[in-house]
User: Fold these one by one.
Assistant:
Number 1:
Amino acid sequence: DAAGRRVVELVAAPGVAAFLPGVATPTWGYGGLPFGGPTLRARRGEDVVLRVTNRLPETTTTHWHGATLPARCDGGPHQPIAPGATWDAAWRIDQPAATLWYHPHPHGATERHVHRGLAGLFLVDDDVPVALPDRYGVDDVPLVLTDRSFTPDGRFDEAHRNAVGLLGDTVLVNGTVAPWFTATTTRVRLRVLNASPARSYRLAVDDGAPVALVGTDGGLLPAPRTVTDVVLTPGERAEVVVDVTPGRPRRLRSLPHDLGAVNGVARAAGGDDAFDLLELRPAARLDPSPPVPAVLSREVPLDERAVSRTRGFVLRGDRINGRAMDLTRVDEVVPAAALELWEITNRHTLPHNLHVHDARMQVLGPGPRAWKDTVAVAPGTTVRTLVRVGPYTDPARPYMIHCHLLRHEDAGMMLQYLVV
Ligand code: C2O
Ligand code: CU
Ligand code: CU
């Protein structure tokens, strides 16, 4: 616009998509897509205006999950967009390169709005050079995972919730059933988002080949980590680099997992299910990719010795610290410059996770520190995480802290905090 800001227009509207052969499914989508949304991309230092127009039949919001941003731009339940209205979120992008995403966050209806299809990726770039594959759609490939069940007449099944929420029997990857990707390089970076309302995935390559984990929710790891699987609970992201071998297709799968839950509960949470996610087919000729760099990020890790305060969060039922979400109550007040230690305890039989808006977190434990905004907390366990919020302050508008299993969030497993 005239002020030199980059304006990105996004319309949320109903659509119709064909996921199953010959079946038309009514959906909601962003940016003219019937399902999902376009990948947004912005660079650190850029002034953006994300302009959302609501052409849906009901009020929604658009939240920028993982973004460091002023509370008025957050897009949580306090920034409703009425049908026909347009809302601007304008701020200067100022955070390290990361794979963020966006989705609706209307109070009490987030699961339904996301389930109808509203979710997209939001990639942040920065000026720190790192030799990772970065050609979007060529060797830097987004994978938005979500699951749906269909009714006999081809609609998304919104009726069969269980204790974790809506679980589907069909996985959609970027809105596609049973996708394949033709790799033209010897390494491919996959940016994986779990955009599912309730389902967790344990990602692995079908021949057990190790992959390099290079990034998590909030940015790149200090150094790559060789792993054979990666668990993603709802809202979490992982960036992995997979080797491509000439003449040898590989399948990315989701394997059973228990999320720390006992057997019957793990089954109810979808832990017994296995899925094929993506077939990676090598092209006849592969261009060589550089090796995964030994150093990915020099960002200074959060320093446990600088913690100014410890807070506890107990997850149980649909409550946090015994409280249900109340739009008129502020639960925590956090100083903008502070580094805090948050101890998150799951005193419940179900797996939960905790997502903190505006925050960049590092979970304490062995191994190199990863940047997180959503952390899984298995039943009966406590996760200790360093939390940094700010720099934006607002004495009146809160950010959210909640379980990202969307049924739980909608049921009230959410608190509000101010950054002052
Ligand atoms: Cu991804 Cu408060 O949400
Ligand atoms: Cu968020
Ligand atoms: Cu939960």
Number 2:
Amino acid sequence: LREARIKKTKTVCTYCGVGCSFDVWTKDRKILKVEPNMEAPANQISTCVKGKFGWDFVNSNERIVEPLIRRGDAFYPATWDEALDYIAENLKRIKDENGPDAIAYISSSKTTNEENYLMQKLARSVMFTNNIDNCSRYCQAPATEALRRTMGLGGDTGSITDLSISDLVIIVGANPAEAHPVLSTRLRRAQKKHGQKLIVADLRKNIMAERADIFLRPRQGTDLVWLSGVTKYIIDQGRHDAEFIKNRVTGFEQYVASLEKYTLDYTSEVTGLSKEQLIATAEMIMNAKSVAVCWAMGVTQHLGGSDTSTAICNLLLVTGNAGRPGTGAYPLRGHNNVQGAGDFGCAPAFYPGYQASADKDVLAKYEQVWGTPLPTNPGLNNHQMVDAIHEGRLKAMYLIGEDMAVVDSNANYVQQAFEKLDFFIVQDVFFSKTASFANVILPASPSLEKEGTFTNTERRIQRLYQVLPPLGQSKPDWQIIQMVANRLGANWNYTSPKEIFEEACATTELFAGATYERLEGYKSLQWPVLPDGTDTPHLYLDEFALEGGKARLWPVDWTHPLTLPEEYDLELNNGRLLEHFHEGNLTARVPGINKKVPSSFVEVSPELARERGIVDGTLVRITSPYGRVKLRAVVTDRVHGKQIYIPQLSAKDDETVNMLTSSDHDTITFTPAYKEMRVKMEVL
Ligand code: SF4
């Protein structure tokens, strides 16, 4: 009997885009252990601290276990019927009074592909609006834009395993040792095993920088300049891959002309890197047989995030490092399913499989499949939604699994917007800062309590199986979305995520051959998946996904970083911690993890600490034009000069780094420029 209560279930980690799969051993609701699976292609190594120990939150007594309705300043338990009636009544009223575009929907890159598919279907087919987005807007949308510009498809060009065989890996503005730990272990092994070279470009001397052969520390917001300067130098030396460019790339002459100003002198002057560093970087690239570039928010969360991402792709194309194993572009996805949320249509401009929402043929297809007319108005992205609330155009929002009140930039402005909403539905596992602004809170089940699929950073679709039953009255998000849709007049009858997945794949060329059977257990598929089930570990082996099958060099120019008044004399940088997932809404509820890192802090350089009389533990107030935070200092040479670093962990209101960041954004994708801010600091 005792044995029968012990169960082993396969799931997929929800703490980063590496997408490690593992078995969870449970006895009733108790998690006994997490057992990594060495056959699972994405990990093959182990799990990191979050994957191994980060799951006790599922039994936290802080879980939301029943629907809650606000009355005055307090929330009261309600039945599902009461909550759904209340939602339907208010959404119908707001739609009737203000039109369908007065309501917006934000899906979650922590929920499954099936749930994302249903959320955009609800917005479009039931509520008649393209106002649907997800948090990839906050992170890798610029990388997706760059890949679509230059190569055609918005996914990593190869597989995580490619990073083990590359001659040289370049990491720009990313810290996989903390944000994608298993991937960083893979790189460390490749360094030891076959002498893989590593170049790291970052403001902060992070763990990867300590392991690098070349560490570049350019001035904040100047990555595009050194990338372009190094590319120009390679071309000037005649060491570009002329054969590859001739056969597989367009736009070379125009691109070369665009590089004219990026001489070594100019590049060195703007970036602060020495000419010797720039030449050594170029030499290492020229001498490598295969080069892969990984990048993350240190690149994308800038005014010119899309253009800097494009400069990375240009460098790869000029040197022939695309379309073969061991090479390519790897924007590292932060959330576990940030790739899948976009893949399955949670973006205003795209239906599932990146089919344009403005394309008449796409609309006609979905009108037939879904049996209803579909909206033609362009939708708002989540950044525009906040402005639209302030302007009175957007009256209601249905938001799933995102603590937008602390993770969006300029958090004060976002919170003020939420206060103005006529009606706000928040669906989450825990009561978050965002939930505190809601009219209705719906209790969602976390990944361990549901089935479905996730898509990791390398376009790999994997199944997760239900480890535990939903706690209390919480439900998997797909069931809740279906209940809301039906209460609003739909007639959906999905009985399992499998049925949703089949419908989604039947209408998208990208996933044509993906089925639950082909994803059984530890099997996985990397899109595009052909109708016969053949998947694609490497994109572009034969041709790129642009007109004529060729890649396209895309000239870009440098956008000067934000300028702020002189009194803001310090540069603010921010990012993830190894122990916590993002803002900490889940991991702060894991006692073991929370005990280790209970609160945020600010990293201060030794020289700045000396100047200001700061030691470890000194309490400081940091102020930007947008807000202020109060944090304890950690003195470390990871940061230098007048740069400071604050983790994204936002366990307490006055520690939330996004109280300091602005609403300025990448000009193409609206991704906030989180990494471009100047602040001042006073000792308390
Ligand atoms: Fe989870 Fe990422 Fe760690 Fe793998 S590397 S166990 S996916 S957090």
